[in-house]
Design goal:
alpha+beta; six-stranded mixed sheet; 19 strands; 30% helix
């Protein structure tokens, strides 16, 4: 008989204050629960980040669940109506950091796996890829684990990421793709001088303004099938000049581009570097740019796996989910290198917020969705 209570496990996980990069024992709880179900658990530590890959069985297909035990900081703890790591239930609602994003989903899938294994419904392999670095720089977490598993030839056929993908009601949305994300750090170094003698200086500010204007004025695209248009946003401009009569020596800016599959990170980087080079023509200073692409755009094309997930949600939650590519980035951007991936989880309205919370009934319903999805998956593939 199934023995894991998803609510109790969620509470236990929330009580481990695993704010990135701290683990605080959260991964130990996950490993203990999975080992008790017969999973072969492998801790994969990269840098200071704890990761876990656990697999039950060695046959194909291999259905994987991916998630993260790390959470964002609580912010002003005094603004919370309860201790953020107490995991208190009030009026049928579980309150705590990680309740929505995404310790509840991890507990729900483990409980669902418990039930499926007890009933003999997992005809192939079940696996879980759990990281402690999703909310951080995401270098030593899922990205590193995926690279290691790929190098070893580990076969994963499909993956469900338990991010809070629902919008207003559980199951109203499944994420089947995400836009890519690129950051650019621009530095313009000029020559400091007195504002009354501009010929003795090289002002970096007008150069930076004109460059940002050219970058901002380009319409990247008008959208892409299943995706909204790409957008470039200047996120900061820094000069650090407290004086009114001094031409500053340097000016810096950062920008972010969220891009759909009409672009690649490499192509966008090339465009930015070309514009930076042009901006330096005739300027008596120096321009430089550093570009970091944290993930390419991807789409899991609608097909049997996506349709199966949508059917199960409709059967359990009585609503047909929208297939969406909206929102920020997630670790699905790394997992897609191994297999088709979707995101299916709780409502994300309170994630990262004060009094992050999730109704207990929705955790139980998500467990039911995962349980049926496991059964139907092995009947289908």
């Amino acid at each position: 008989m199934p023995s894991i209570d998803p609510i109790a496990l969620t509470q236990a996980l929330i009580r481990r204050p695993s704010v990135t990069p701290a683990d605080a024992g959260a991964m130990d709880l996950v490993e203990e629960a999975l080992a008790g179900l017969g999973f072969a658990c492998r801790r994969m530590r990269f840098g200071e980040i704890e990761n876990l890959y656990a697999r039950h069985g060695d046959a194909r297909p291999n259905l994987c669940f991916a998630g993260h035990t790390d959470v964002v900081p609580v912010g002003d703890a005094a603004a919370w109506r309860v201790d953020p790591f107490e995991a208190r239930i009030e009026g049928g609602v579980l309150i705590g950091r990680g309740a929505a994003d995404m310790k509840s989903a991890i507990a729900a899938f483990i409980a669902a796996a418990d039930g499926a294994l007890a009933a003999g419904e997992a005809k192939g392999s079940l696996s879980l890829l759990i990281t402690g670095d999703e909310e951080g720089v995401a270098v030593d977490g899922t990205k590193a684990v995926v690279a290691a598993l790929a190098a070893e030839g580990e076969a994963i056929d499909h993956c469900i990421v338990g991010e809070p993908s629902s919008s207003a009601q559980l199951g109203d949305m499944i994420k089947i793709g995400r836009r890519g994300s690129l950051n650019a750090f621009i530095a313009v170094e000029g020559v400091q001088g007195h504002v009354a003698y501009p010929h003795r200086a090289a002002n970096p500010v007008p150069v930076l303004i004109r460059l940002l204007g050219r970058l901002q004025d380009r319409v990247l695209d008008d959208g892409y099938p299943e995706f909204q248009p790409s957008n470039l946003e200047v996120t900061t401009i820094d000069v650090g000049n407290p004086a009114t009569n001094v031409i500053p020596r340097a000016a810096h800016a950062r920008l972010n581009i969220r891009f759909n599959p009409a672009h690649t990170g490499a192509a966008l980087q090339g465009w930015i570097e070309e514009e930076v080079a042009k901006a330096g023509d005739g300027f008596g200073g120096k321009l430089s740019v550093r570009v970091e692409c944290s993930g390419e755009a991807f789409l899991t094309e609608p097909g049997p796996f996506v349709a199966l997930a949508a059917d199960v949600v409709e059967e359990v939650a009585a609503r047909r989910p929208e297939l969406s590519t909206t929102g920020g980035t997630s670790d699905a951007r790394f997992i897609r290198a191994l297999c088709p991936v979707i995101e299916l989880g709780l409502v994300g309205a309170t994630m990262h917020a004060v009094d992050e919370r999730t109704p207990v009934a929705e955790i139980e319903q998500l467990t039911a969705v995962y349980r049926r999805l496991i059964r139907r998956y092995f009947e289908t593939f």
